[in-house]
Write a structure and sequence with these properties.
Number of domains: 1
Strand content: 15-25%
Strand order of the largest sheet: 1-2-4-3-5-6-7-8
Number of helices: 11
Structural class: alpha/beta
Largest sheet: 8 strands, mixed
CATH class: Alpha Beta
Oligomer: single chain
Radius of gyration: 17 Å
CATH architecture: 3-Layer(aba) Sandwich
CATH superfamily: Alpha/Beta hydrolase fold, catalytic domain
Order of helices and strands: EEEHEHEHEHHHHHEHEHH
């Protein structure tokens, strides 16, 4: 277990491997822990970091730190504290929003971006995610499978206020448009059966610029990295293997990653 002080508060993180840095950011339910398999795969070529955002896992719980902007500040200060330069970013749910907002603010610091089950607009987020107790959210989103329940062991450590505050005043469309105007390669991945975050419409997918690409994992729900671990990790590996600056649309050269839209 590794910790660093950010703004005089504890941030917990784990790290594996050597090489270029990649940062994994968890979602509204869970912690760094469900990234273990993906970290192990990435660590063969990258130095893989996964951290607990404010209010989650073993990082500090202070109600004044939970807005999306403050979670972005956390990532920014974490990178500064550890002297980490240009990164690959992988975010899921809330972590995907943090990754997008960080990229919108500091695109020069991000080599590539993978956002998993990320809402494209506010309407895509199920209201239950904002209001249900943590234990209910874990049961709802994990499908009560043994693998998911093990990976989400830390979920009950979260401060419920950190979930709700992250969605207060959120400017999803604005953040996404800012990233669209930049040229950071971005791969959007959605589990087809996610009950919490709706997939983008066909119109939204067709409007994505050249350097963005959308892939649907048909056997996944809210946690593709758990629901289809081997498939998700192959996709992650293929994405990370692309030359810097290359569009993730190159992934469609492989039959398995052909573009799918509803």
């Amino acid at each position: 277990m590794s910790v660093v002080l950010v703004d005089e508060a504890i941030v917990h993180y784990e790290v594996l491997g050597r090489g270029r840095p990649i940062i994994f950011l968890h979602g509204w339910v869970g912690s760094w822990r469900y990234w273990i398999s993906s970290m192990q795969v990435a660590s063969t070529s990258f130095r893989a970091y996964a951290l607990d955002l404010w209010g989650f896992g073993d990082s500090a719980r202070e109600a004044g730190r939970y807005t999306l902007d403050q979670q972005v500040d956390l990532l920014d200060h974490f990178l500064e504290q550890l002297g980490i330069g240009k990164i690959a970013l992988v975010g899921h749910g809330l972590g995907a929003l943090v990754a997008l907002a960080f990229t919108a603010r500091s695109s020069q610091s991000v080599d590539r971006l993978m956002v998993v089950n990320c809402p494209i607009d506010v309407k895509a987020v199920h209201n239950r995610l904002r209001t249900a107790p943590l234990t209910d959210l874990v049961d709802w989103l994990s499908g009560r499978t043994p693998d998911a329940q093990t990976a989400l062991t830390d979920a009950i450590k979260a401060d419920p206020a950190a979930i709700s505050a992250s969605m207060n005043g959120i400017r999803l469309e604005e953040v996404f448009e800012q990233v669209k105007q930049q040229r950071t390669p971005c791969l959007l991945v959605h589990g087809q059966s996610d009950p919490a975050v709706a997939m983008p419409s066909m119109e939204q997918v067709m409007a994505l610029p050249h350097f963005m690409h959308h892939i649907v994992l048909e056997g996944s729900a809210h946690f593709p990295m758990i629901d289809e671990t081997a498939k998700f990790n192959r996709l992650l590996t293929d994405f990370l293997a692309l030359d810097s600056g290359l569009s993730p649309r190159e992934l469609q050269l492989k039959e398995e990653w052909k573009r799918r839209v509803r």
